[in-house]
Structure formats: C-alpha cells, structure tokens
Specification:
heterodimer, A: mainly alpha, 2 domains, two-stranded antiparallel ribbon, about 10% strand, elongated, B: mainly alpha
Chain lengths: ~240, ~325
C-alpha cells in the first residue's frame, strides 16, 4: 500500500500528499450520504409545500401530475443523483463530506481534476456500488496500491489528505523563542499549549513536566505553574 | 559537532525574515486560485515566489519535518503549484474541441468496435425475431403481460400515449432512461466487456422479439412508424455505448505494453468523449420520442425525414470536419 503521493516539481522540491485510505474515504462518503438524503428530503417537503400547500405524493388526486413532477420530483432526483458530480466540480474536487474528512480529489499529477475526470469517476459509481452498499468500490480501495475505487482508476484520480494549517498558527511562533529553543522545540511547546484544554489534567501536567525537563528547565510546581513556565518559554520571559 | 545555539539563531533570523513574505502570500493566494480574478501582477509575483517557497519548505522539512511550519509551507506550496501549473480552461473551447475533434477522433479509433457491436446487435435482433416467430409463447421473456394483452387486442402500447402522459414528461423520462442504459452499457464493460455483451444482446433480442410479436398481429408497420423518428439515433447510440464498453473491456483484458490500470484509464478517457456527445444526442432523441413519435399528425414520411435527418447530423458530427488534422 502506498502512503504518499510525491509529485516532482521544477524546483527540485517534491510535493507530498498523504493518500486517503478506505477509512477517510468512507467517513467522507457517510457524511455526504446524510447531507444528500437531508437535502433530497428537504427539497421534497419544500417543493410540495410550494406546489400544493402541503406534503403531497405522486398520484394524489388533487395534485397536477406534470407540474408536481417538474417542481418536486425532478429536482429531488437531480439533487440525489447529481450531488457528487455537481459539488465536486463546483468545490474543485471536494464535497462537504470530503471537506469535513479533510480530503480532496487530485489527479496523479497532483492537480485539481477537470470536469471530464470528475464525470468519469462519477459515472463509474454504477460499477463501484455493485452489488450493494459500494462493495466493489470498498474492496477496490482496500486492495489497490493508492486506495482507489474503479471510478478513480478510470479517471486517473485519487483522494489525498489536505493539510489545513492557517497562517494564524504560524504567527504564534515567535522568533525569540526559536532563537533560544530551536524551531522543533518551539513547535513542540506551542503544540502542547494549544492542546492543553483538550487534555486531561494529569496528562497535561505530566507532558509539560517532561518537556520542561527535556529543555533543561525546572519542572517543580503544580499544573498552573507548568503552564505558565511553558508560556514564558515562548515569550522569552524566562 | 554542530554549534546548536548559533544554528537556532540562524533559524530564528530566517523565520523572522520570511514570515512577512508568507503572510503577504497567504493574503494573495485566494486571488491566485481564482482563475477569473487573478491579475497579471499577482501571477508574476507568484511565479517569482514559487521557488522561494520551495526553498523555505526544504529548510523547514530539514529542521522540523512534522512541525506546523512545514505543514503550512507544504500547503502553501501545493496551492501555488496547483494554481501555477493548471491548464487553461474555457467552457466554449472545451465544448468546441469535444464536438469538432475529440469525439470524431474517438469514433475513428473505435470504428471496428462500433461495427462489431452493431453486427452483434443486429444478429441478436434477428435471433429475437426468429425465437418469437418460431415459438410465440417466448414473447413473455421480452414483453410485459400488459403489453402482450394490448397487442393481442389489436392495439399498440404506444397508442394514445399522449392522452395518458404529456410530451414533456415522456421526453424527460425517455432521455433519462436512455442515458442510464447507455452509461450502464459502458460501465459494465469493466467486467472484461461481458456486461456490455449481455446488455447489447438483451436489447437486440428484445427489439427483434417485440417486432416479431407485433408482426403476428399485423402491427409491426405501426411499430416501425412509431420508432422511425427517434429510433435511428437511439439504436445507433446503444451500439456505440456497447462499443465503448467493449473497448474498455478489451483494454483491461489485453493491456498491451501498458499496465492494466493505465490501459483502462486511456480507454475510458477516449470512450467518455464519444459518450458525452452521444448523451447530448440522446436528449434530442428523447424530445423527438416525446413530441413527434406518439403524435399521429406526423406521417411516416415526415417521421422518416426527421429520423434520418437527425441520424445524418449525428453521423456527420462523429465523422467530423473533412480534412481535419488528427
């Protein structure tokens, strides 16, 4: 199984993408499936309300069949079946589910996929969804080198994790701290401070103490003291 | 032994010197990625900055391979790469190229497959005819109970179609169904072409069988009258879809000097261009089938003119401009 896609660049510095496996792909699909179902139902209800003033079913005597089909049924079917291709084209290789899962479709050259490639990978959902619940597609992602389904093989695409680090997190790194601790240690301290609220009190104290010792600082005191010592390392007050 | 404090100071100096460049670049990245909004100045500045960011990334990867700075620079570098190396794209030009070059090229490449599948379709239609003509009870394999009863009552299931369903509705239903059948015929080519053979064979048998059945009740002429306006293009497209499926199946079974995946990818890319043009013509065929075919005001001559005229346009589109370069 290949973990990363390396794209050579004219600069000599390769681009690296981590390839999304069956887990990441399934997560995105499950999220998208729920959104798709909700959107489909929402349009059906809204369309029915607009058209007939209440929830109506095809064949109801008081509902004009042709109008109901064009206002309610057709858009509902379009939302359900064209959700993936339309959003993948509009969101440049992503869908809301893929965005939440942090993955994106790229070509084998690392570029954004074109309309043709997106349509091809979606047409082949017919095969990937055989015989039920995407069994063929799931099996293909488990046994292919780049974890791709049949549609991706045909379109020359794959799913990769998209790194999402904003410039705000870089602004938190201070030149003075880097000068005294080094870049890797500064990042380690920053990482721990950012995760501080999510960690259990004993765990964060333990990690903080170990880090301070590793950096040659005194690690005596309670949790609050450790936190403030770590902070002062970054601001250069120690 | 390396001098760690001076190394860290150098890193800090580099970080501080480059930080403003990264911030300015981050502000301009959305513009760079927007194909319509990007200015010449932004594009040129991105071209100058691209190797600088590559160098910064190489440094960051060396110092802190998994750190947030490396991740951030990797992300910026990837976005710049995608924006700078993307191919120019214009919807009008793409559509023009598809109809004027790509589809005719694909059709020329697949002509042997198209001819073979058409022959297979005709043979299975003949087999369907022979089966039902010889063993009339076998029509139950190809037609529903309702259809059989209607024909036995001296009528076609297409009679009074417009009284039951309006043309617009018929058209939408028909072309959607035809597109799904076409896509299925192509997609099932993945099963080494076997799925495609099944679909083409079944459609041929059905066509022949149903014509043989209606002939037994003197209705085949009226059935031909019904299909004359839309059938030429529709049946041609079913054969072409089968040919694409078969081409894809053959590419997987006999990849030649390519890997199986490369061969599959190449075959599907070629076939999909032809398929895209066929899908457009299927919409037209669906509209004809909804508005012209069930309307009794159209004589057989008019239907043949429409059907053959549309088919000639379809064929000319696939043949392409005379003398064009491939």
């Amino acid at each position: 199984m290949q973990d990363a896609l390396n794209i050579p660049s004219v600069t000599g510095v390769d681009l690296e993408y981590k390839i999304a496996g069956p887990g990441g792909r399934s997560y995105a699909y499950v999220v998208d499936w729920h959104i798709r179902i909700l959107l489909t139902l929402a349009w059906y209800v809204l369309g029915s309300l607009i058209y007939s003033g209440g929830i109506a079913w095809v064949g109801s005597d008081d509902v004009g069949f042709q109008g109901f089909l064009f206002v309610v049924i057709l858009p509902t079917v379009v939302i359900y079946f064209l959700y993936h291709p339309i959003l993948e084209i509009a969101m440049q290789g992503r869908t809301p589910g893929k965005r939440i899962a942090g993955i994106r479709i790229v070509t084998q050259a690392g570029d954004l996929p074109g309309v043709g490639a997106i349509l091809i990978r979606n047409v082949l959902r017919i095969v990937d969804s055989l015989p039920f619940v995407y069994a063929v597609g799931l099996a293909a992602t488990m046994f292919t080198k780049q974890s791709v389904r049949i549609g991706d093989m045909a379109a020359g695409t794959l799913l990769v994790y998209e790194i999402q680090t904003d410039e705000g997190s870089i602004a938190q790194l201070q030149g003075d701290a880097i000068a005294s601790l080094g870049l890797d240690q500064t990042e380690l301290v920053r990482e721990l401070l950012d995760r501080w609220p999510e960690l259990a009190p004993e765990t964060r104290s333990e990690l903080g103490r170990k880090l301070l010792v590793r950096l040659g600082r005194s690690a005596a005191g309670g949790e609050e003291e450790i936190f403030s010592d770590l902070q002062s390392l970054l601001t250069g007050e120690s | 032994m390396s001098d760690q404090p001076s190394h860290d100071k150098a890193t800090a100096a580099w970080f501080q010197a480059r930080q403003t460049v990264w911030q300015r670049l981050a502000e301009r990245l959305p513009e760079l990625e927007d194909r319509k909004a990007v200015s010449r100045e932004t594009a040129l500045s991105a071209m100058r900055l691209y190797p600088e960011i590559a160098r910064d990334l190489a440094i960051a990867r060396r110092i802190a391979p998994t750190g947030r700075l490396t991740r951030y620079l990797q992300q910026v570098y990837a976005r710049m790469h995608r924006a700078l190396f993307r191919k120019p794209w214009s919807f009008k030009q793409e559509v023009w190229r598809l109809f004027a070059h790509d589809a005719p090229d694909a059709a020329a490449q697949l002509w042997r497959h198209i001819a073979s599948v058409t022959l297979g379709f005709l043979l299975s239609a003949f087999a369907g005819w022979w089966l039902v003509a010889t063993y009339p009870e076998l029509v139950g394999l190809f037609a529903s109970e309702q259809m059989i009863k209607t024909v036995q009552g001296g009528e076609l299931w297409t009679d009074d179609l417009l009284n039951v369903t309006p043309s617009s509705l018929l058209s939408v239903g028909i072309f959607t169904n035809n597109i799904v059948v076409t896509l299925t015929a192509v997609s099932l080519g993945v099963l080494y072409g076997l799925g495609t053979i099944y679909i083409i064979g079944l459609n041929g048998l059905m066509l022949g069988g149903v014509f043989a059945f209606t002939a037994q009740y003197g209705l085949s002429g009226r059935l031909f009258e019904f299909v004359a306006a839309h059938g030429f293009v529709e049946l041609s497209i079913i054969c072409i879809a089968g040919a694409i499926g078969f081409y894809v199946g053959e590419a997987i079974a006999r990849p030649g000097h390519l890997t199986r995946i490369e061969s599959f990818q190449r075959a599907f890319a070629t076939g999909s261009k032809l398929l895209a043009v066929c899908a457009v013509f299927l919409v037209g065929a669906g509209l004809i089938e909804g508005y012209v075919s069930p309307d009794e005001r159209f004589s057989l001559t008019m239907r043949l003119v429409i059907g053959l005229g549309y088919w000639v346009v379809f064929v000319l589109t696939l043949v392409g401009q005379p003398g064009r370069r491939r």
